[in-house]
Design brief:
Layout: H1 2-23, H2 26-40, H3 45-59
Length: 63
C-alpha cells in the first residue's frame, strides 16, 4: 500500500515538473528578463526595452 502511494506521488511530481518545464520557452524568458531589468534599476527603461526587442528578435519565432 505504501509502495503504491509513493509511486503515485513520484509520478505526479514528475508530471507536474514536466508541465512546468514545458511552459518555459526562450521567447517567454525575454519577458522575465525585461521585468528583472525594469525592477533592477541599473539600466534605463529605454535600455531594458531595447534589450527586450533584441531578445524577442533572436528567441521568438516569426508569426
Amino acid at each position: 500500500m505504501i509502495k503504491k502511494a509513493l509511486k503515485t506521488v513520484l509520478f505526479l511530481l514528475v508530471a507536474v515538473s514536466g508541465f512546468a518545464t514545458a511552459q518555459v520557452t526562450p521567447c517567454s524568458m525575454c519577458e522575465v528578463q525585461l521585468n528583472r531589468c525594469l525592477q533592477n534599476g541599473v539600466f534605463t527603461d529605454e535600455q531594458c526595452y531595447a534589450a527586450y526587442e533584441r531578445c524577442k528578435a533572436d528567441a521568438c519565432p516569426a508569426p
